Amino acid sequence: MLWCFDIVKDIKMTSVLDVANYFLCLQDIDAEDFISNLKMQKLCYYAQGFWLAIHNVRLFPNDIEAWQHGPVVPELYHKYKNNKSDRLPISEGFDQHVLSKKVTDLLEDIYQTYGQYSAWRLRDMTHQEPPWANTVKKRETIISDREMINFFKTRLA
């Protein structure tokens, strides 16, 4: 019966706040390069992009917008904006078991690959990638799922 539970959890869309909190659980609390708001934005962008490329559906429902410093999930930005460039806190009461194994596996891969980079390095990387660059070039705000799928499918191993 456990497999039914996993399928139901995979069908239910994940909250961007749960994704953010999971990333915060993965960071080394003693590390010099911690997760700031800017870095969190980029990690969530990569998570959404790869999930879209693999599953053709969003990981979380929020739009990702092309802001001056790269892709941003506005709800997440506003939650953490008072932290400025400081380390983000994990939300009290966060239960990582709300995320399916499929989701946590992807988030761990994203963190292992991109978590090693500074916030500003990730910002620069996203500026070189078509989803953000094309959206800005077209003077649009929302980075489309199609842009992300097209780009991230080229990044799958």
Instruction: Count every helix, treating DSSP H or I runs of 4 or more residues as helices.
Output: 8
Structural class: mainly alpha
User: Stretches where pLDDT falls below 50 for ≥5 residues?
Assistant: 1-11
Shape: globular
Question: What is Rg?
Answer: 15 Å
Note the beta-strand portion. 5-15%
Give the overall pLDDT as a whole number.
Answer: 91
Can you list the strand order of the major beta sheet? 2-1-3
Order of helices and strands: HHHEEHHHHEH
Largest sheet: 3 strands, antiparallel
Give the assembly state of these chains: single chain
Please outline the helices and strands.
Layout: H1 2-11, H2 16-26, H3 37-55, E1 64-67, E2 70-72, H4 74-80, H5 101-114, H6 119-128, H7 130-137, E3 142-143, H8 145-153
Antiparallel strand pairs: 1-2, 1-3
